[in-house]
């Protein structure tokens, strides 16, 4: 089941026909001409997906609309805390238990400090953006001239060369590929 909270983009050949939440994209695709295949892409992963287009517009929209969030009950709000197992050496546990606020608080502070430093997170975001752009480019532009050089430029993080290699591609394909590759 696709993530209904993410955005998606639909292409009819090399022309973008819809972009947004999946429910609205699905209805737009339902009304596209049947003689040309339509590809729908997840804007986070760049991967194509198939949808069930049976039924009326309202049925299709309902199938791909996220369920409403349940009303909040009384009491303390959930903070999104997820308990998970962490494996550490005894000396690490000794140090953590001696920290003010306990082990969980110390680990949260260490993670926040590492995120502020940002190198690993930036690298992961760049990798994810490159992979999303690659999946989209492979599906739509795999037979376009300059495709191989464009993918080399993409994974080398050479934005100028990427833009040069895809400059002759159709506008919508070029624009979407560059949008996905942007961190």
Helical content stands at 40-55%
**Strand-pairing-aware structural class:** alpha+beta
What are the segments in which pLDDT stays under 50 over at least 5 consecutive residues?
Answer: none
Strand order of the largest sheet: 2-1-3-4
Number of domains: 2
List how many beta strands DSSP finds: 4
Reading the helices and strands in chain order gives EEHEEHHHHHHH
Beta-strand percent range: 5-15%
State the distance separating the first and last CA atoms: 26 Å
Query: Over the alpha carbons, how many angstroms does the gyration radius reach?
Result: 22 Å
Largest sheet: 4 strands, antiparallel
Shape type: flat
**Count of alpha and pi helical runs:** 8
User: On the 0-100 scale, what is the average pLDDT?
Assistant: 89
């Amino acid at each position: 089941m696709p993530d209904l909270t993410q955005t998606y983009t639909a292409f009819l050949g090399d022309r973008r026909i819809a972009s947004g939440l999946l429910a609205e994209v699905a209805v737009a695709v339902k009304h596209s001409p049947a003689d040309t295949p339509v590809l729908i892409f997840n804007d986070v992963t760049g991967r194509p997906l198939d949808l069930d287009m049976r039924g009326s517009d309202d049925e299709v929209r309902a199938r791909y609309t996220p369920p409403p969030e349940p009303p909040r009950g009384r009491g303390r709000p959930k903070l999104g805390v997820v308990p998970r197992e962490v494996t550490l050496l005894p000396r690490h546990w000794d140090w953590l238990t001696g920290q003010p606020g306990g082990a969980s608080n110390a680990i949260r502070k260490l993670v926040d400090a590492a995120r502020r430093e940002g190198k690993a997170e930036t690298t992961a975001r760049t990798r994810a953006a490159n992979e999303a752009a690659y999946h989209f480019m492979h599906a739509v532009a795999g037979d376009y001239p300059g495709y191989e050089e464009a993918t080399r430029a993409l994974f080398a993080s050479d934005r100028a060369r990427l833009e040069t290699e895809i400059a002759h591609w159709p506008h919508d394909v070029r624009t979407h590929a560059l949008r996905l590759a942007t961190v």
